[in-house]
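batch job 7 of whatever, protein = HTH arsR-type domain-containing protein
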Amino acid sequence: MFRALGDPVRLRLMSMIASVPEICVCDLTPEFALSGPTISHHLKVLRDAGLVESDRRGTWVWYRVRADAFRQLGALLHIPAPTEASA
């Protein structure tokens, strides 16, 4: 998961996808100065890493965050606040 998020384009895509319940690839692509196939590649990396899921509706593909993946990332990144006794 961290490797997938290590690329600035994928991190930005992930941020955009996480900011809404779901988003169409047609709304993601214009936000980047990259070709459609390049954006599709980055989205595939995010899918393969288990960070997002997608489904095709007609011509377009819609993406949403996988909540369980976000919970896993959150657990890995959780740093407990220091307690009064250890501070």
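notes: The chain has a mean pLDDT of 89.
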